[in-house]
Amino acid sequence: MTKKIPAVILGATGTVGQRLIRLLEEHPWFEIFAVAASERSVGRPYAEACRWLLPGEPPKHVGEKVVIRLDPQAVSCDRPAIAFSALPAAVARDVEPTFAKAGYVVCSNASAFREEPDVPLLIPEVNPDHLALLKRQQETRGWDGLIVTNPNCSTTGIVLATKALDVAFGLRRVVATTLQAISGAGYPGVPSLDILGNAIPWIPGEEEKIATETRCLLGRIERETRIEADITVSAQVNRVPVVDGHTLCLSLGFDRLPSPTAAADALRAFRGSETVRGLPSAPPRSVHVMDGKDRPQPRLDLSEDSGMVVHVGRIRPCPILDLRLVGLVHNTLRGAAGGAILNAELLVAEGWLG
Amino acid sequence: MTKKIPAVILGATGTVGQRLIRLLEEHPWFEIFAVAASERSVGRPYAEACRWLLPGEPPKHVGEKVVIRLDPQAVSCDRPAIAFSALPAAVARDVEPTFAKAGYVVCSNASAFREEPDVPLLIPEVNPDHLALLKRQQETRGWDGLIVTNPNCSTTGIVLATKALDVAFGLRRVVATTLQAISGAGYPGVPSLDILGNAIPWIPGEEEKIATETRCLLGRIERETRIEADITVSAQVNRVPVVDGHTLCLSLGFDRLPSPTAAADALRAFRGSETVRGLPSAPPRSVHVMDGKDRPQPRLDLSEDSGMVVHVGRIRPCPILDLRLVGLVHNTLRGAAGGAILNAELLVAEGWLG
Amino acid sequence: MTKKIPAVILGATGTVGQRLIRLLEEHPWFEIFAVAASERSVGRPYAEACRWLLPGEPPKHVGEKVVIRLDPQAVSCDRPAIAFSALPAAVARDVEPTFAKAGYVVCSNASAFREEPDVPLLIPEVNPDHLALLKRQQETRGWDGLIVTNPNCSTTGIVLATKALDVAFGLRRVVATTLQAISGAGYPGVPSLDILGNAIPWIPGEEEKIATETRCLLGRIERETRIEADITVSAQVNRVPVVDGHTLCLSLGFDRLPSPTAAADALRAFRGSETVRGLPSAPPRSVHVMDGKDRPQPRLDLSEDSGMVVHVGRIRPCPILDLRLVGLVHNTLRGAAGGAILNAELLVAEGWLG
Amino acid sequence: MTKKIPAVILGATGTVGQRLIRLLEEHPWFEIFAVAASERSVGRPYAEACRWLLPGEPPKHVGEKVVIRLDPQAVSCDRPAIAFSALPAAVARDVEPTFAKAGYVVCSNASAFREEPDVPLLIPEVNPDHLALLKRQQETRGWDGLIVTNPNCSTTGIVLATKALDVAFGLRRVVATTLQAISGAGYPGVPSLDILGNAIPWIPGEEEKIATETRCLLGRIERETRIEADITVSAQVNRVPVVDGHTLCLSLGFDRLPSPTAAADALRAFRGSETVRGLPSAPPRSVHVMDGKDRPQPRLDLSEDSGMVVHVGRIRPCPILDLRLVGLVHNTLRGAAGGAILNAELLVAEGWLG
Questions:
Q1: CB–CB of A192/C241 below 8 Å?
Q2: How far is the C-alpha of A108 from the C-alpha of A165, rounded, in Å?
Q3: In chain B, where do the E strands start and end?
Q4: Which of A43, B49, D21, D94 is deepest in the core (most CB within 10 A)?
Q5: CB B85 within 8 A of CB B108
Q6: Tell me: the pLDDT tens digits for C37-51?
Q7: B270-317, pLDDT tens digit by residue?
Q8: Is the pLDDT of residue D1 over 50?
Q9: How many helices (H) and strands (E) does chain D have?
Q10: What's the DSSP call for residue B200?
Q11: Which one of B193, B240, B242 makes the best mutation probe of the D interface by having the most chain D beta carbons within 10 Å?
Q12: How far apart are CA C21 and CA C64, in angstroms?
């Protein structure tokens, strides 16, 4: 690769957009070509239009870019390009197809197309075979480009923490209770009066997404069609006063009962395909099995492996289903911006760009 | 009652001891006669010996009392009296029997005797019939007094939130994930460096207590013997940065499938016996069923009904077991000091004092 | 008083509006007659229109009231009435005069009219003589009613903590650094991502208000004209992750050097006029001088005396100015809703109603 | 340097000890040779003896080291070495001299010797000339080695934020109010019940240290004697629920009145000597002047430049003294472990080792 691949950030001023920009700052394959956002930001330098919420400042060359409209016509790029979408679902539904149609490889963090039967909902280590949907997507929709989505942040953690167990023991039931960080709600997101010193036992739409997306991700592809996995999910989500990091308390039921040791071994051995392991944003291990009886914890464990690893601890028998464990996922890295970038890397490696 | 019943506070300087003192400040039946604590406090006025952690200051007449030894001989009381114990388990194991032997009605918040077969583990609305163990206790142990215990704070919430459902539908399985407040660990308790902006997926001994005590409380008495309930409990506890209030996320399995409406009705109708309802510390309702989709929440709901009510919300079908719901209990009031006082009131009403 | 005085709440759905409703729930003199708010709430029952943020639920009879327009014509009240205003400043500027003109005694928490030369900025214990401005206000503006304002929440604390010192020693200079609670910003107010585990050294307009309002409140009235006090204020405000309670760190310079003991004595002796002391919402003491070296603290001290007392601790010499001390004010009670009600009570006691 | 300089960590298991170990993990000049701690850790592998509180795990080669006694005889090192001390003051007073006597260059974070007239209290960019005290120290005390100390964490921030202003305008008065992070109290440190959602207006001994140490650091050396600066400091410290990062709100008085612009220019131009600028841990700039009206903030700014830079914002006139500004220092990096390491680097560069 002599020249980096141009990337357009859709929804560049939000919290996930900012994470994308930070992660792409020194990316070996991609470089930010344009930043696009809603009307009130268009025409202003990014550094002014954006209330930057990450430590430090936006990269200088991005900060100076003028924000463009959410329209492929506004981008003056003459090479095949990637569009990373951090748009709200309602906006994504209209905007993302225009980019796909214009030839962009759209890697979306939005929920708008996650459940479309011809749109891969993708975690590279988990279901790279779902890219088989893309041919049908392009044919049916008449797009030169394509859309691939990454799952909801909690689902990303749950699926990475259970994929290896599903392969080895046949996952059938998941009772999930989550403790989710405030950054999952974007900005301004959760008012501090609601959450400081408090816990809120509900997040709109989240429990439904966890159930649906888990079945998609762990499903299989037959004749270019996605067959959802036969897994029942019962989810209770909670918002807690943690900045980053969703804690996932799971009880799991399987076809074949795993011992805690066998489960830990399966998780430790879990890794993506050789192609996936070679991607720039792939962590050295996708799951980190922890022995400490009080781990994982957001503050102590979250930043490891660039926030792309899922931590799993407290693996033990469940007296009701089969296995109990606790997972931890970095919701804005692996669960959002980092997930979208890893997807883009896989698409490039698999030859879907240009 | 022309004269109030004297009460001795064992472990008076700790957080539960302080709550006991505050709750007894204007109690219609009881008055604090003596405050006892460990050696390093003995001989000093209570206000000096104690690092008071509740709003305001200790009641003046208690603040001036000199702290005495944890020894019935140190109390110069000539009437039948109650000893409220907020001692650590290891100390309680030695001290509580000396008070029971000396004729005290010991109402203990400690875990030391909770699992003894002849010691009632008591929630007045739930299992007042377990007082039938007391006769055997006094005979076997040769005590003039007695020991009654109240359960662990999370268990109190779980059992109050499920007792009515157990009666109506036959509770068999409980998958519980808790979000527990820092005050549950006493003082100094959880270091702020461990919990500020964090969540910790473990509390020593807590998951075991929840399983064991739930089976005791929902068990029955046959021929002065406690038969544990046949209920399987799978618990995952978490510490979260909330000051007071344990949130309890439950999936429940029953003999007979309840509809959410039937479950809510059963919980709304739940109340103790007529005797229990007349106790001074009994709340107007023991369970508050909430309709708001994001309730209960510690900050908004905890202080209602003097912290003696358990809130239950989000009652809905569980696709794996039968029912999902979220409970909230005030861990230092209903789950500790208030629970001990309500037990004492029941014992007085049932004629166990003097 | 055989019948309670009717009260209209302007801006009833916001956080200060809610506090007003809670405080008036059992008020001996006032009763809520109508709740008014912006267009999007008008026509809906209050309980539906309002996102209630205080513990428990709104009083039933208020919850059932239909929200009316911010217009005196919308109120069908045939008796002299009070309008409590919790409106944003920009709205208050238009709406409050229409109520004053229609004969209402408007007690406003908004900043809109605080600096008008003929509008009293009032704390009953501090400057009841400023009511002398009202006659001119009514004459000049041709109003049957009137407007009285209470100061900004931090200023309320600073002035209550220093008034007695000003009287005794002549206050000339105030270096103030505040640690302010999130509830001061209303709802949704401060995004949790901004403040959880963080401190923000700025609040828009706050430092200017502290300086200006302090000079007004400690000023005097001559010939129905307010003469600002000759006091220089240097303020640095900070937002901190505390729910309620502004901590005020002050260095004070005086005409006559007070010893810490003399200062504490002056503060302890500080009380309003006999009239003020008899008002229903007046606390037994306006300033609580604390000896504990680590006091006052929001969590431990804020709820005392219904949140109407200002706590002062750590009184000691300042090696640069004269005196150092730390104040604590309940920003949404004494500093907002409670302050407005106390003002209304004084106006009634002084015969300004009807 | 062909071989790295051996370093012994005294008080290796505490929070500052852990920071030292993390910072030395890949240090170009130093390598950890031994870890020493109190009796209850001695003889155990460091990874077991220590409750590791930083993200990730201790470096493997350190985790495997057996903890030794706080005694130079326990170290089997045959080369000139550095001892980094993170000991409590009371222990440091006894232990540090034994290492200095045994030839070690002791770089101490403890307060034990900070005020000794022959012990440099050192910040390399601020007062490297104070190393002139060392000759006298070694002669008087008959030590082959030496002790150099770094200041208290708040003082470090205050002095770095004002040194350039002192040089340019002659600092005479400092009114300081701080908002200090919980990590400043070590581990277990501040109980969460004390600080969650709260602010505490006192930290034992802190205000005195700020005053004394500021005068030392900004003082001058004449004939190998330290002359304290003629600067009056009035400090009010507060503990706030922030994990890392002390916010410092300062009002400053000078001999010559600086304009805010001149002050900002002086701070931007501030840097250490050429020697200091070349040290491995020296940040590219020692002070970062920020323009944002709501900066600096712990969460957004603390991690910049490895936590070794002090941020300064909100520079403006003070109507009482001359200048107002807000500083932010990373209390466990620049204010503790990082400060000690930078001191060690300067000592090596100046030839004080071996």
A1: yes
A2: 27
A3: 5-10, 30-36, 82-85, 105-108, 146-149, 171-180, 220-222, 225-227, 232-239, 246-254, 287-289, 310-317, 323-329
A4: D21
A5: yes
A6: 999 999 999 999 999
A7: 999 999 999 999 999 999 999 999 999 999 999 988 999 999 999 999
A8: no
A9: 12, 13
A10: B
A11: B193
A12: 13
Angle at D333 between CA D328 and CA D338, to 5 degrees: 125
| Cross-chain Cβ contact D196/B193 below 8 Å | no
For residue C180, the chain A residues in CB contact (below 8 A) are none
C301 closest CB neighbour out of B55, B196, B299: B55
Q: Nearest chain C Cα to A189, which residue?
A: C191
User: CA torsion sign, B12 to B18 to B24 to B25?
Assistant: positive
Amino acid at residue number C274: E
Mode of pairing for the β-strands spanning A310-317 and A323-329: antiparallel
Residues A327, A178: Cα–Cα separation, whole Å: 9
Q: What is the pLDDT of residues A228-249, one digit of tens each?
A: 999 999 999 999 999 999 999 9
pTM: 0.97
Torsion, Cα of D31, D34, D37, D39 (10° steps): 170
Predicted confidence (pLDDT) per residue in D155-173, tens digit = 999 999 999 999 999 999 9
- Six-digit token pair at D45? 């592998």
- If DSSP states are collapsed to H, E and C, what string results for B121-180? ECCCCCCHHHHHHHHHHHHHHCCCCEEEECCCHHHHHHHHHHHHHHHHHCEEEEEEEEEE
Judging contacts by C-beta atoms under 8 Å, the chain D residues touching residue A243 are 299
Q: If you write DSSP's letter for every residue of A38-60 in order, what string do you get? A: -TTTTTSBHHHH----SSS---H
CA distance C214 to C163: 10
What's the rounded Cα separation, in Å, for the pair B120 and B327? 24
Active site residue A77: no
The complex scores an ipTM of 0.96
Q: How many other β-carbons are positioned within 10 Å of the β-carbon of residue A298?
A: 25
For residue D68, how far is the Cα from the chain centroid? 25
**Residue B187 with chain D: CB contacts under 8 Å:** 191, 193
User: Cα B72 to the chain's mean position, in Å?
Assistant: 24
Q: Are strands A232-239 and A323-329 parallel, antiparallel or unpaired?
A: unpaired
Asked if B236 lies within 8 A of A202 by C-beta distance, the reply is no
Spatial separation of the C-alpha atoms in residues D164 and D167, rounded to whole Å: 5
Pull the structure tokens for residue D353.
């080792």
Residue A323: strand pairing partners: A252, A317
Dihedral sign (CA A181, A186, A192, A195): negative
Which is the catalytic residue, given D27, D246, D288, D311? Answer: D246
Assess contact for A287 and A309: CB atoms under 8 A. Answer: yes
Q: Where do the domains of chain C lie, and which CATH numbers do they carry? A: 5-152+337-349 (3.40.50.720), 153-330 (3.30.360.10)
The residue whose two tokens read 């930010």 is A32
CA distance C281 to C333: 11
Range C42-76 burial, b when 16+ CB lie within 10 A, else e = beeebeebbebbeeeebbeebbebebbbbebeebe
Alpha-carbon distance D333 to D24, whole Å?
12
3-state helix, strand, coil in chain A (%, to 5): 35, 25, 40
Asked if C300 lies within 8 A of B55 by C-beta distance, the reply is yes
What DSSP character marks residue D332? T
Question: Within 13 Å of residue D167, how many CA atoms lie on the same side as its CB?
Answer: 16
Distance CA B210, CA B228 (A): 13
Pick the closest to residue B273 from B137, B122, B158 (CA basis). B122
Q: Which of C56, C197, C303 sits opposite B304 (nearest CB)?
A: C56
Cis peptide before B188 (omega within 30 of 0): yes
Which run of H or E residues covers position C133?
A: helix C133-141
